[in-house]
Amino acid sequence: MTSGNEILPTRSAVQTRGVMSPRRAVSAPRWSRRRGVLAAFSVMATAGFVAASLVPLASFPTRAEATELDPLSLYATAVHDAQRYQAGDAPGLELERASDYTVNVKPTPTPTPTPTPVKESSSGSSSSGSSSSGWSPPFVTPNPGSAQAIAYDMVTARGWGDSEFACLVALWNKESGWRVNAFNASSGAYGIPQATPGRKMASVGSDWETNPATQITWGLGYIQGRYGTPCGAWGKSQRSGWY
Fold first, then answer.
1. Contact present, 195 and 128 (Cβ < 8 Å)
2. CA dihedral 206, 211, 217, 223 (to 10 degrees)
3. Angle at 100 between CA 94 and CA 101, to 5 degrees
4. Reduced to 3 states, what is the DSSP secondary structure of residue 160?
5. How far apart are CA 207 and CA 73, in angstroms?
6. Where are the membrane-spanning stretches (predicted)?
7. How far apart are CA 147 and CA 179, in angstroms?
8. What is the DSSP secondary structure assignment for residue 130, as one 8-state letter?
9. How far apart are CA 243 and CA 240, in angstroms?
C-alpha cells in the first residue's frame, strides 16, 4: 500500500510523456531532375492549349466579311441584274428624247424711233404771224453801230446800267445781228428784236420796217414786260435758244 501523497505512474502520464517527447525534424524535400522536366512540360502544354484555342477565333471572318461572303440566292441575282439594266438604259432614253427637242426664239421687233418735235423760236407774244401773205422786207443798208448807239441811250433812260446794255448787245447779236431788215422766213420774225410777226412793231410807229429807233423801242418794251431786264431775256435765250 502507498500513502495518499505518493504519486503512482499511470497510463495517462505515460501517454503524456510520450506526447511531450521531442519530434524528429522533417527533412526539406529535395529538387530532383525528374520534377524539373515535369514542370517544363506542364508549362509548354498549357501554352500550346491556349494557342490552339485562340487560332479558331482569329480565323473567323468579321461581320462585314461575313456579309460579303454570304452566298447570293437566285432571286437576289435576278434582282441585281434587273437594277443594273434599268440604271444603264434609263439615261439613254432621256438623251434620245432630248435630241428631238428644238427651241424657236421669236425675235424681238426693233421699235420704230419717234421723231422729236422741234420747238419753234419766237420772240413775240402767243399770237403768231405768218409770212405766207407774200410780204417781203425792204432793203436797208445795215448800220449796226448807230443802232447800238440808239439802244444805249434808251437803256440808260430806263435806269439800266452798262451790264444790262451788254446783255442786250449779246442778245440781239444772236437774234438779228442788229440789222433792221433781218428776216426769218420760217417763223416770220423781223427786225432787230425779231418781232413775230414784224407788223407788231407798228404799234410804236408806222416806219417799223426801216427805222431802228422804232424797232428798238418796241423790243425794249417787250423785254421789260416779259423778262424784266435785258439780262433776264438773255438768260432765257441761253437756256432755250429763243426769248
1. no
2. 100
3. 90
4. coil
5. 126
6. 37-58
7. 8
8. -
9. 8
Amino acid at 228: G
CA dihedral 145, 151, 156, 157 (to 10 degrees): 140
**pTM for this model (two decimals):** 0.44
Kindly give, in sequence order, each residue whose CB lies less than 8 Å from that of residue 143, ignoring residues fewer than 6 positions away: 212
CB within 8 Å of 172: residues ≥ 6 apart: 151, 178, 192, 193, 219
What amino acid is encoded at 113 in this protein? P
Mean pLDDT by 10 residues, the chain (243 residues): 50 47 53 65 74 60 52 60 52 51 65 55 40 57 76 94 91 94 94 96 97 97 97 93 92
CA angle 51, 57, 62 (to 5 degrees): 150
Helix intervals (H) in the chain: 11-19, 33-59, 63-69, 74-99, 144-157, 162-175, 212-226, 230-240
